[in-house]
């Protein structure tokens, strides 16, 4: 039984080394935020250790460099996976609500909401395209881009017939919708399916 | 009922009023043994009691070992999901920072716990931290409400903070955890609860034997704007351009809701992982304790058995030597 336990423990590498930075590595501002919380906690509840906060589990980000860096660092995350984690690319094109937006290194800091559409990642000569449902993109001043989407599928996994069927189904639902809620839901369906359609054709 | 009580009393007194003469009870200090009388003159000590105890302890050991294996397999399943979801909350913290010591009027503590027990101390630590946060945020004009996920925290918090609990959600893990379910849950909470700051308390899974209680803070859009204007940590939020025709307020609203659902998803997964890990170690230590107990009982059993054999031999031999003369 003990042998099995040690085998189980060996299979699971201790995650502390990877996810938790040492407290000496944290930049000074993050340390002060944690410190005020820890102090306030210790004054009121001296017996229990203060709980950890997300800052202690995050890798700190580099500050904005003085010259424009050559590559854009992209984090593309989904609830079930991190598609790209701190990958250095040349450009990404994101489907923002105002249309396709290209992001190059040195882009001004922006917060943009995404609408259903195609996201393409350009690295050298290769382009990877995903269809994303919606989400947010944050572009920071230090040429880091965070793309958070709920669902993202590579384009080759989309079935054209099902897309057409869905589109016709939702357009008919939209025309026959009575309440506002039904209309809104049908409109969302139509938007997503027409975006899917155009991504497959265009 | 009086008859039943009398009957019970009668049974208790029965060994003392037995018609046979009470002989000296030879019992080992650890296990109770009873003296039986067989055919005239022969005494032997019964090992039945010890044997019954050994059987039940062995069964308990088997059950706890099985529970540990089940928890280990469930842990493996949830752990991959949890590790994949860890990237989800990091962009939000990178953008909005983390201000656990922000000064707000209405804070809502979302305590995440398990539905089933036998998982060590993780639920009590979560509840203790929630109560601590409430104490930390107490003051004039400030109030703290609870949203409880899970039966175990509900049982503990309902006892002294019943009027402060806004929502109780149980049976979260009936179906495998997925983002859709958690986002519906987040939607419910956002609709029904007014808040300036949401503090989500959960146990973060660090390794199979270590779980860290963690609190993640999600601020409402108004507080985000207030903190951005006053400078400090969120000061450079204003430097970010808002793409699109929406105002900053609208985008912040969407952002906060999205942040809450992402952070909740990660928190629920981490807590599920911690629950399985804690159950594994609790069941492991209990099967080890059962093993120790079994060893001690075996020793007692052997001692009792040998003592009874020795008694029999002594009586036979002394009887034989008495006959010889």
UniProtKB/TrEMBL annotation, chain A:
Membrane spanning residue stretches: none
Aminoacyl-tRNA synthetase among keywords: no
Cross-referenced InterPro entries: ATP_synth_F1_dsu/esu, ATP_synth_F1_dsu/esu_N, ATPsynth_dsu/esu_N
GO annotation, cellular component aspect: mitochondrial inner membrane; proton-transporting ATP synthase complex
Protein keywords: ATP synthesis, CF(1), Hydrogen ion transport, Ion transport, Membrane, Mitochondrion, Mitochondrion inner membrane, Transit peptide, Transport
UniProt keyword Transport, yes or no: yes
Compartments, as annotated in UniProt: Mitochondrion inner membrane
Assembly and oligomerization: F-type ATPases have 2 components, CF(1) - the catalytic core - and CF(0) - the membrane proton channel. CF(1) has five subunits: alpha(3), beta(3), gamma(1), delta(1), epsilon(1). CF(0) has three main subunits: a, b and c.
Protein family (similarity comment): Belongs to the ATPase epsilon chain family.
This protein's name: ATP synthase subunit delta', mitochondrial
Organism from which the protein derives: Hibiscus syriacus
TrEMBL record, chain B:
Chain's role: Mitochondrial membrane ATP synthase (F(1)F(0) ATP synthase or Complex V) produces ATP from ADP in the presence of a proton gradient across the membrane which is generated by electron transport complexes of the respiratory chain. F-type ATPases consist of two structural domains, F(1) - containing the extramembraneous catalytic core, and F(0) - containing the membrane proton channel, linked together by a central stalk and a peripheral stalk. During catalysis, ATP synthesis in the catalytic domain of F(1) is coupled via a rotary mechanism of the central stalk subunits to proton translocation.
Family membership: Belongs to the ATPase gamma chain family.
Name of the protein described by the UniProt record: ATP synthase subunit gamma, mitochondrial
Keywords assigned: ATP synthesis, CF(1), Hydrogen ion transport, Ion transport, Membrane, Mitochondrion, Mitochondrion inner membrane, Transit peptide, Transport
Membrane topology annotation: Peripheral membrane protein
Keyword Transcription on entry: no
Entries under SUPFAM superfamilies matching the protein: ATP synthase (F1-ATPase), gamma subunit
Keyword Ribosomal protein: no
Superkingdom of the organism of origin: Eukaryota
Gene3D superfamilies assigned: 3.40.1380.10, ATP synthase, gamma subunit, helix hairpin domain
HAMAP family: ATP_synth_gamma_bact (MF_00815)
Chief location: mitochondrion
Subunit comment: F-type ATPases have 2 components, CF(1) - the catalytic core - and CF(0) - the membrane proton channel. CF(1) has five subunits: alpha(3), beta(3), gamma(1), delta(1), epsilon(1). CF(0) has three main subunits: a, b and c.
One GO CC term, this protein: proton-transporting ATP synthase complex
UniProt xrefs under PANTHER family: ATP SYNTHASE GAMMA CHAIN (PTHR11693), ATP SYNTHASE SUBUNIT GAMMA, MITOCHONDRIAL (PTHR11693:SF22)
Cellular compartment(s): Mitochondrion inner membrane
A GO molecular function held by the record: proton-transporting ATP synthase activity, rotational mechanism
């Amino acid at each position: 039984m003990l042998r099995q336990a040690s085998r189980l423990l060996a299979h699971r590498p201790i995650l502390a080394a990877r996810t938790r930075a040492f407290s000496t590595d944290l930049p000074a501002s993050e340390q002060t935020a944690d410190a005020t919380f820890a102090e306030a906690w210790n004054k009121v509840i001296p017996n229990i250790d203060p709980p950890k906060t997300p800052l202690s589990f995050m890798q700190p980000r580099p500050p904005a460099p003085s010259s424009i860096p050559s590559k854009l660092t992209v984090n593309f995350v989904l609830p079930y996976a991190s598609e790209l984690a701190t990958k250095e690319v040349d450009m990404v094109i994101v489907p923002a609500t105002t249309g396709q937006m290209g992001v190059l290194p040195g882009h001004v800091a922006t917060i943009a909401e995404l609408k259903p559409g195609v996201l393409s990642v350009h690295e050298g000569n290769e382009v990877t395209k995903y269809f994303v449902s919606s989400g947010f993109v944050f572009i920071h001043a230090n040429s880091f881009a965070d793309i958070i989407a709920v669902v993202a599928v590579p384009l080759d996994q989309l079935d054209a017939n099902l897309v057409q069927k869905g589109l016709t189904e939702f357009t008919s639902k939209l025309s026959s919708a009575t309440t506002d809620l039904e209309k809104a839901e049908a409109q969302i369906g139509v938007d997503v399916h027409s975006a899917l359609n155009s991504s497959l054709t265009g | 009922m009086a008859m039943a009580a009398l009957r019970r009393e009668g049974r208790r007194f029965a060994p003392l009023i037995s018609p046979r003469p009470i002989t000296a009870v030879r019992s080992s200090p650890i296990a109770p043994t009873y003296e039986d009388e067989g055919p005239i003159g022969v005494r032997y000590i019964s090992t039945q009691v010890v044997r019954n105890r050994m059987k039940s302890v062995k069964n308990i050991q088997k059950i706890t070992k099985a529970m540990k294996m089940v928890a280990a397999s469930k842990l493996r399943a949830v752990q991959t999901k949890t590790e994949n979801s860890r990237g989800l909350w990091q962009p939000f913290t990178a953008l909005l920072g983390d201000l656990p010591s922000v000064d707000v009027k209405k804070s809502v503590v979302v305590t995440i716990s398990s539905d089933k027990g036998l998982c060590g101390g993780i639920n009590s630590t979560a509840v203790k931290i929630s109560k601590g946060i409430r104490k930390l945020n107490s003051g004039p004009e400030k109030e703290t409400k609870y949203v409880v996920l899970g039966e175990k925290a509900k049982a503990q918090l309902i006892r002294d903070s019943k009027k402060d609990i806004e929502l109780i959600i149980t049976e979260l893990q009936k179906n495998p955890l997925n983002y859709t379910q958690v986002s519906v849950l987040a939607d419910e909470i956002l609709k029904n609860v007014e808040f300036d700051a949401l503090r989500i308390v959960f146990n973060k899974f660090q390794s199979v034997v270590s779980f860290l209680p963690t609190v993640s803070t999600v601020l409402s859009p108004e507080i985000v704007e207030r903190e951005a204007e006053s400078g400090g940590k969120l000061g450079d939020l204003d430097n970010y351009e808002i793409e699109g025709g929406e105002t900053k307020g609208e985008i912040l609203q969407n952002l906060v809701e999205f942040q809450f659902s992402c952070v909740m998803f990660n928190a629920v997964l981490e807590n599920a992982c911690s629950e399985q890990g804690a159950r594994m170690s609790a069941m492991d230590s209990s099967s080890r304790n059962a093993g120790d107990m079994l060893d001690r009982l075996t020793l007692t059993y052997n001692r009792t058995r040998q003592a009874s054999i020795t008694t029999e031999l002594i009586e036979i031999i002394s009887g034989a030597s008495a006959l010889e003369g």
